[in-house]
Amino acid sequence: MIYAALILALIATAEAEAAAQPMPRELTTEDAQPAETPRAGTVQLRGLDTLNGTVSDFEVPLGGTTSFGHLEITAEACRVPDDAVADSFALLRIRDIREEEPRFTGWMFASSPALSALDHPRYDVWVLSCNNR
Questions:
Q1: Quick check: is 11 in a domain?
Q2: Bigger pLDDT: 132 or 115?
């Protein structure tokens, strides 16, 4: 009986904490980084088609959209930190043209592709670098 009361108290506490948390909002390019992080003009990406095993490198201009197989990739921002230790990161929106909702919306990091990855059964896309072209 005491265990049941403790479990109910823990559940009530967890629900109260969850209710107190603010709702997350959608990321925007203003959320990117402080102003001292240089902006790039294009995002260099690599795509893998796991069905036929082909790898393709391609560039997407900021604000532009390109296609890779059934994917439509839009680059919204790309940053390169000043320190040599860190790598490029890009704000991408990736949508399968056969679906309404994007498969991925968020920041991808060149140094840690698995940290924030596209979840697609056939395609894999990751950031290589940002260019100032």
A1: no
A2: 115
